[in-house]
Amino acid sequence: MTSYISTRGNYPPVSASAAIKVGMVPAGGLFVPDEIPVFTNSRIFALTECDYLSAAREVIAPFLDDFTADELSDCLKPAYGGSNFHHPLIAPLHSLTEKVHFLELWHGPTAAFKDLALQVMPFLLTRSAAKLSGQKEIIILVATSGDTGKAALEGFKNVPGTRIIVFYPYRKVSKIQELQMTTTDGDNTYVVAVKGNFDDCQSAVKEIFADQRFNRILADEGFELSSANSINWGRLVPQIVYYFWAYAGLLKKKIIAPGEKINFVVPTGNFGNILAGWYAQKMGLPIHKLLCASNKNKVLTDFFHTGFYDRNRKFWQTRSPSMDILISSNLERFLFEITGHDAEKITHWMKELAEKGSFRADKKLLGDSMIAGFADEEETLEAIREVFNSYNYLLDTHTAVGYKVYQDYCRKSGDNTVTVINATASPYKFAASVLEAIQGKECLQEKDEFAILRRLEELDKGSLHPGLQNLQQKPILHRTICEKGEIRGQIEKILLTGS
Predict the structure, then answer these.
(1) What is the mean pLDDT of the chain?
(2) Which of 106-110, 224-228, 285-289 has the lowest mean pLDDT?
């Protein structure tokens, strides 16, 4: 049976359900599987006969081997078997050219790739809690840079035995993202704006998970903390599925031959999305190169180029806010894996990062495991403009970063490998930036966010994503704003005083 171990060697091995229930290692660190299952080429080819639900079952099952087949199906069917996604393929491939294909991961209820994981995660979590005879109410703490918050709220709202509290950086997400969160209904949802950036939110949440005294206080009151961020393995493992799904889709279209290697380009901030691709590669998926695409906050690009991780730098608020991150949590898992599970080394690096804001890894250790690049603000807009003018296809700001990084890589390398670019959000979620890219900044004058949405819809000759319709008519249900040092107090207020 697969065991889950701590990246810092400070917790005994646990089952998959225990790792999902706990979320983050209580004393600090993240859970990873002690072994990675490997798929044969014939097993990968067999996925061409699967729908998304069946493919998810095949890919996820080896990681969750303490779930029975029926238990896993009970989790997957409500996520992928109903009407949660607005495209019959769940995550379709859009072919830009014979060599370049966009994997559209934004057809879920919140128009972002997080839905692929967060529609199933609540079922994995509640099932894990039930398997472990947990009687406490599970409190989901979420730090979001924009998209995870709404996706988690939609996944967990009104789920019995849970409450979800989302923290987002005040005035550092798009208006659409903010409205998606603050208009969320449900009798167990709480949304708090924090006067700080995403790293402030994420660091506070991590500290709360690691605070054993505070956790004991909550336990005495009948609460148990867990997370819906990708620090929770139950959030990360469903993301591995769409890499296999994309490959099977290319096989089905006869764009590639069985066993042929492809590239993936992944816009990423917290490193979870691309880490899922790395796990897929280690499972046997024929991946030639993984391209890690960053925006102007290029801490990951610099790290893969130099081996030096340094968050002591200016924080930029960009048009791709879900990537405005300087502390990429899932990098810890990646480093643990490539060091051969050297928990002592990881503990040292993470201690340096926490205390000094930086650490240095051996550049030789990183090798060419990731190709890293970035796009600045103007390059992001130019990518949107180029793809729309040349192909009449809209990119959101995050996907545009990925496209620009791909172009740079091709120019430098001459690599002509078939490539999939993860399209991480609907372009309508970042309508102002997308419209500005196409028509210039003057087109935004005297237009509110929803007038911009309508104009973009006219240009696209498409239809607005259902998850974004009528947002301006929904009542704002969450208005709490706090300082970054008040996050713990907000949790206490919500849980211990009921307000």
Answers:
(1) 94
(2) 224-228
pTM for the full model?
Answer: 0.92
| Coil, helix or strand at residue 70 | helix
pLDDT digit string, tens, across residues 138-160: 999 999 988 889 999 999 999 99
Question: What separation in angstroms does the CA of 436 have from each of 220, 396, 440?
Answer: 53, 12, 4
Token pair for 345: 């080394």
DSSP string, 42-54: HHHHGGGG--HHH
Which listed residue (114, 206, 298, 429) is catalytic? 114
Beta bridge partners of 2: none
Give the pair of three-digit tokens for residue 78: 């409500």
Per the annotation, the verdict on 114 as an active-site residue is yes
Q: Is the pLDDT of residue 215 over 70?
A: yes
Distance (Å, rounded) from C-alpha 269 to C-alpha 292?
A: 9
User: ∠ at Cα 344 (312, 65), nearest 5°?
Assistant: 105
State what percent of residues in the chain have pLDDT above 90. Answer: 85
Section 343-360 average pLDDT: 98
Sole residue written with tokens 């997370």 = 227
> Residue 439: which of 452, 428, 430 has the closest Cα?
452
Domains, the chain, ordered by start: 4-84+114-233 (3.40.50.1100), 93-111+239-468 (3.40.50.1100)
Nearest-angstrom CA–CA distance, 65 and 42: 21
Q: Which of 311, 272, 313, 307 is nearest to 292 (CA)?
A: 272
Q: What is the DSSP letter of 110?
A: T
What is the per-residue pLDDT for 277? 98
Which tokens is 98 given?
Answer: 């014979």
